[in-house]
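Example record

The entry below shows one chain as it appears in the dataset: sequence first, then structure tokens.
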Amino acid sequence: MSARDVERARAVAELGALPVPLGHDRPAPAPQRTPFEARLDEYLGRPVVRRSCCGSERALAEIAVGLRDELMRLRAALDQTEDDLTGACLARWEEEQDNTRLRLAHKSAVLRAVRLREQCATLAAQVAGVDRLMADVQPWADAADRINGLKAQAPGACSDCGAPPVEWCTGCAACCADHDATCPEGGEPS
């Protein structure tokens, strides 16, 4: 290496710039983009500046794009899993609500059955009391039936009280009307 090259290398190292050969006024046209570079541009959200790079940079870029694709696949799988989990949680919540309603309905039915048993016991006690009263009243009902039968057998008896025409009942309006109609003198019944 000549002294000039050494000096140039020292200036480049100090300034951090690359030397530009003389006579190159305009930049060279950009080479055609490869599909890989287009995908890399899309991934990064900005165009990638093509440099003459070694294979390791290209390999890293391919790894980045591969990782991006894998990340998108995993993100879709995660979304699906989250949806499944949400559906399962919703189904479990609905099941708990149904169980709560069923427990409440069961408790209400048990309370109603207890109340109905109490009412049945009360009614049974009342029926037993009525049966005892009917047993006490039965002789009186039999006597009333015999009296009504005898009244119906007497000819010309009052239709309301059953008194024979000879013994008109003074408290019965029907007897008084019958007596007034049959008595030529219009007197009081005897």
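Notes for this example: The first helix runs from residue 3 to 15. Residues 31-112 form one domain.
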